[in-house]
């Protein structure tokens, strides 16, 4: 069962992350900042990575709770709006995110872990936009969105415009590219489905064919 990390622990962690790199933050510092003993922190969270995961879930919840499920915008426009909302929710923590990105560049294991944390987040963002995430194509969409956001985040970090024009322009271009890839992936998926159905029909035809005299004699 997933443990609920208290907000004061998440806030203490993000405050420290805004001040220093991820790898230099100690559990004792988080406990002190949160006003807890180390034992109480152990009861609240399994470690730094678990607190980071809880922070990202809190951001996702804040974004998803504001989604208008009755929107008649296109799926692309809905996804654009959702991702910009996510950047808006992260804005108070931009310095913390910058430190996290820098740490991930130095630590492949952390980068791989962050990719794992980002997958369910991407799945929910796509679902909120009405975009399917099932099957091979769905898996490609989820990982594709994670990769897209990994490339967009440095742009957002450096974007000092109040209206985030650079971020919006980069996101718009990235979504246009993603649409093209998704369209091609759809064609490939349909082609493999057709091939699979042909093999299935041939297998059934062979199994239903009458046995040859030679095979009956051998029996």
Automatic annotation (TrEMBL):
Lineage: Bacteria, Pseudomonadati, Pseudomonadota, Alphaproteobacteria, Hyphomicrobiales
Database matches in InterPro entries: Homeodomain-like_sf
Superkingdom: Bacteria
Protein name as catalogued: Transcriptional regulator, TetR family
Species per Swiss-Prot/TrEMBL record: Kaistia soli DSM 19436
